[in-house]
Every structure is written in structure tokens, then in C-alpha cells.
């Protein structure tokens, strides 16, 4: 059994897709172990690991317990010198070049662990994430300027201004960062943050159509899937100068991930059940021109409760090497493909603008 997928797989392996480094190396995690492939997924070696207590090690041996307790690596960055920085449930861990054992350099003291961490050279950035408890504090953005050895507050929102932060995005076309905030009322939005952290300007806010977790940067716009359990979700184009929102294609669920492979952009969706999101499928959509989007991967939610045992979703990695047609995706809380990573290579010609992917369910 394979997911509906017109992009053929090169290989599969156990684990969660995490990162494609600037060297083109692939990184996945299995439990708290992080594995690396230097040959497009043909072979894998242990790269580094997050230390785990005996209790956590025992829970990791029970798949449902690991899902319930969220015992996995959420995100990874690999710096140019080989430093690795990982996000897990209790904080951020770092391994210097050549080290296998990671050490914690930042601990969660408010809310829960970040859901993303971004890299700009040796600078690392993330925002606080959590539930209702975050509404009573000024949500903070953190920055490391020493390759993850330490983190300092680089910006703090006024109390109640935002609920939490989904992502801080490095834009290759602008001299600032994009801050993606959630969730309801006036709090969701997309803002430009100066690199010195002194100035933050909202491009658009107060709408579910600017509630985003990951974006694809283009010279004239941002492309992303909206992340709403309240309204119909779409692939969205946000004009970076005028802040105008354009709905490009409907989605069956909220979107948490986006990644570029070569000149092809991909956006994935989640099964986050609500009155609006009723579908039991999570998918990946691909586009070579940013206007037309094809469904290229489809997976089905498994039978376990989504709140306790995770939303069904397709995980896309953080991609540094964007001139390669090799990519990764993995399944979470889905039938057959939970915690399995697929390595793929885009078909010849698929990185040509206006290429269509021959999907079974085009969305335009």
C-alpha cells in the first residue's frame, strides 16, 4: 500500500523528516536519535541524539505513549559549520561539530516547546508557543547569535497582543524576518521584524487568512496554506508590499508546513477535526509557478484520537539546499505511513515553470 502519489519514491525509512542541509544532506529523527544521509537516502548513520531519561526511553518503546507525551524531535537546524540545534518537548538542544551527544541550551519555562526554529547564518530564531496561559503574558521572540550556545529575548509583544508564535521566517529577498502569529480574533497575522529586533510592522493581521505556520518566500509575495480550524482553508498569496490576500486553491484542512524543492513549492495539510475541517485526509500540494496547485500526496488519518495522539499530517522538512530536486516528507498519525519518511526525486522536467504534476485531484 502506498499513499496516492504521482511522485515516485526513491526510498523510505523509519523516522520524521527534519532538514535538508546546505550540503544537501538529509536528516530524520527516530525517537530522540537524529540520522543523516549523504547519498540521497541510500544509507543512513546516527548523526547525534538528544539525551533521554530512563522513563522517556521506556515510553519511546511504546509508540502510543511516545505520541501521547510528544517524545520526538520537533525541528532541527544544521549550521554551515556542522553544528546541530534541535527542538524537543523540554527545550532546545545543541551538538557542536563532530559531537554526538546533544546538550540543552534553552529550557521551556512558559507555554510549550516552539514549533519551529529558523537559521540566518549563525543566528537562530524562534517564538514562544503555548495555550491559554500565553494570553496573560507578553509573548517573546528569542535569538541566538552564538550558534545556539545561548538564547536571549530579541522582541517582546505587549501583553495580549498575540496568542503565540508559529514561526520566524528568514526571507532571502528582504532585509528583515517574517513573524507568523496565531490564533484568533485580532491576534493572528504576519509582521516584518527588523533584524536588530527593534521594529515590528504588521503587513496584515486579524484574519484567519493570515494565520500561517510556514511560508514560501517569493520576490513579490508570500505563499502559504492557511491554518484555521474555524474557516475553510486555502493556499494563499500575500502581496508583500500591499498586504493584499488572494485565495488560490481550497484545502481540506489546516496547513503547518511548506518547503521548496528546486523551483517547486510544496504545502502540506493536516487532519485537525472541527465543524469546518471534516475531511480525514491530509495531503501535499505542489506548484512550479505559484498559481496552479496539484495534489501529489494523500494520506488518511489513523483511528487514534487527534487531540491526544496527534493530528494527522504530512511533515515537510526545513530545506536549505533549494537547487536540488531531492526531497523528503513523512507521515504523522496516519494509516500505514505514521513515522515513515519518504525520499523522492522530482521527475525530469518537474522543476520547469508551469509543469503540471499529473495528480489524481488537481485543485484548480
Fill in the keyword field for this structure:
globular, Neuraminidase, 5-stranded antiparallel sheet, disordered C terminus, 5-stranded mixed sheet, 31 strands, 364 residues, 43% strand
**Number of domains in the coordinates?**
1
Structural class: mainly beta
Total number of β-strand segments? 31
Output mean pLDDT: 90
Give the CA-based shape: globular
State the CATH class. Mainly Beta
Give the DSSP E fraction (strand runs of 2 or more residues): 35-45%
Distance between the termini: 27 Å
Bin the helical content: under 10%
Q: Give Rg in angstroms.
A: 19 Å
Give the helix tally. Answer: 3
The CATH architecture can be named as 6 Propeller
Largest sheet: 5 strands, antiparallel
Which stretches are poorly predicted, pLDDT < 50 over at least 5 residues? 351-364
Order of strands across the main sheet: 1-30-29-27-24
CATH fold category name? Neuraminidase
CATH homologous superfamily descriptor: TolB, C-terminal domain
Helix-strand layout with pairing:
Elements: E1 9-14, E2 16-20, E3 26-30, E4 33-37, E5 45-49, H1 54-60, H2 63-69, E6 75-78, E7 84-88, E8 91-95, E9 103-107, E10 118-120, E11 123-127, E12 140-144, E13 152-156, E14 164-170, E15 176-182, E16 189-194, E17 200-205, E18 216-217, E19 221-225, E20 233-239, E21 245-251, E22 257-261, E23 264-268, E24 270-271, E25 281-287, E26 294-300, H3 306-309, E27 312-315, E28 318-319, E29 326-332, E30 340-345, E31 361-362
Parallel strand pairs: 2-28
Antiparallel strand pairs: 1-30, 2-3, 3-4, 4-5, 6-7, 7-8, 8-9, 10-11, 11-12, 12-13, 14-15, 15-16, 16-17, 18-19, 19-20, 20-21, 22-23, 23-25, 24-27, 25-26, 26-31, 27-29, 29-30
Amino acid at each position: 500500500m502506498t499513499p496516492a502519489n504521482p511522485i515516485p519514491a526513491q526510498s523510505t525509512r523509519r523516522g520524521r523528516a527534519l532538514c535538508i542541509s546546505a550540503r544537501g544532506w538529509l536528516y530524520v529523527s527516530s525517537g530522540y536519535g537524529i540520522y543523516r544521509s549523504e547519498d540521497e537516502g541510500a544509507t543512513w548513520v546516527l548523526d547525534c541524539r538528544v539525551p533521554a531519561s530512563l522513563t522517556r526511553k521506556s515510553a519511546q518503546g511504546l509508540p502510543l505513549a511516545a505520541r501521547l507525551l510528544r517524545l520526538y524531535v520537533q525541528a532541527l537546524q544544521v549550521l554551515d559549520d556542522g553544528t546541530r540545534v534541535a527542538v524537543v518537548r523540554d527545550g532546545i538542544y545543541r551538538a557542536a561539530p563532530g559531537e554526538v551527544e546533544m546538550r540543552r541550551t534553552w529550557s521551556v519555562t512558559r507555554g510549550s516547546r516552539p514549533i519551529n526554529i529558523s537559521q540566518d547564518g549563525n543566528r537562530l530564531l524562534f517564538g514562544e508557543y503555548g495555550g491559554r496561559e500565553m494570553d496573560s503574558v507578553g509573548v517573546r521572540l528569542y535569538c541566538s547569535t552564538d550558534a545556539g550556545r545561548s538564547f536571549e529575548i530579541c522582541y517582546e509583544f505587549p501583553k495580549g497582543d498575540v496568542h503565540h508564535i508559529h514561526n520566524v521566517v528568514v526571507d532571502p529577498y528582504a532585509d528583515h524576518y517574517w513573524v507568523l502569529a496565531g490564533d484568533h480574533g485580532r491576534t493572528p497575522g504576519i509582521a516584518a521584524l527588523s533584524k536588530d529586533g527593534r521594529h515590528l510592522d504588521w503587513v496584515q493581521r486579524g484574519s484567519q487568512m493570515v494565520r500561517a505556520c510556514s511560508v514560501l518566500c517569493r520576490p513579490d509575495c508570500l505563499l502559504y496554506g492557511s491554518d484555521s480550524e474555524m474557516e475553510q482553508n486555502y493556499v494563499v498569496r500575500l502581496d508583500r508590499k500591499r498586504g493584499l490576500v488572494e485565495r488560490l486553491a481550497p484545502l481540506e484542512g489546516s496547513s503547518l508546513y511548506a518547503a521548496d524543492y528546486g523551483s517547486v513549492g510544496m504545502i502540506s495539510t493536516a487532519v485537525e477535526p472541527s465543524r469546518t475541517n471534516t475531511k480525514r485526509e491530509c495531503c501535499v500540494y505542489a506548484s512550479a509557478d505559484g498559481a496552479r496547485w496539484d495534489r501529489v500526496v494523500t494520506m488518511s488519518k489513523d483511528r487514534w484520537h487527534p487531540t491526544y495522539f496527534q493530528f494527522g499530517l504530512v511533515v515537510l522538512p526545513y530545506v536549505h539546499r533549494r537547487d536540488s530536486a531531492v526531497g523528503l516528507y513523512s507521515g504523522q498519525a496516519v494509516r500505514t505511513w505514521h513515522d515513515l519518511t519518504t525520499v523522492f526525486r522530482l521527475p525530469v522536467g518537474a522543476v520547469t515553470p508551469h509543469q503540471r504534476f499529473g495528480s489524481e485531484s488537481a485543485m484548480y
